Amino acid sequence: MRIKSVVSLVLTVVMVTVGAVVGPASPAAATDALARCRAGDRPQYSDTAWWQAPGNQHTPWAAPAGIVDGDVFRVTAYGTGRIDFWGTNKSINGELPGAPANWPSPGERRYMLVASISAGTLWSDWTGRTYAGNSKWLPVGFDSGCFQYWSAGDPHPLLRFSYNDDNLGDNGGGAWIVVQQWW
After folding, report:
1. Which stretches in the chain have pLDDT values below 50?
2. How far apart are CA 111 and CA 164, in angstroms?
3. Number of other residues whose CB lies within 10 A of the CB of residue 5
4. Share of the chain above pLDDT 70, in %
5. What's the CATH class of domain 37-182?
6. Can you give the residue ranges of every domain in the chain?
7. In sequence order, what are the beta bridge partners of 79?
8. What is Dmax (Cα atoms) for the chain?
């Protein structure tokens, strides 16, 4: 009877060790990245300095560590943007009422910092919604909360930033941004 207990214990130790060495499957790893972001754990990558996304254009993020399926991001930002040639400044956190249907992110705060991905889908922990491809803009403002990338097979997706404004051409100023990334 004792020998069975010893054998059982040895098998349990071997299985736990193998599980620790092999590691979890990909979906569990992606979930772990989201959990680490939510918990505020140290990211695997973080911009080392604030960089600017001008208010009058779409600005791609350099993505020094690349972007792959399951990566999780959190964007923090500050600043104001000029929304017209007359010098009207707005917070990059946006303002109500929500934007009309012909704006980049309808229903979200006007003039806020937004982000999109060139291919694939972003899922926002903050809004509980998905944003697919270039035409769907995820609200960012001062703090995006955690959002996760799901690939559409593009090996080099671009995360880019802009503003929830129907006319970027008369804008100025912009947001200062830091991107954090978990995988």
Report:
1. 1-28, 30
2. 5
3. 9
4. 83
5. mainly beta
6. 37-182
7. 175
8. 87
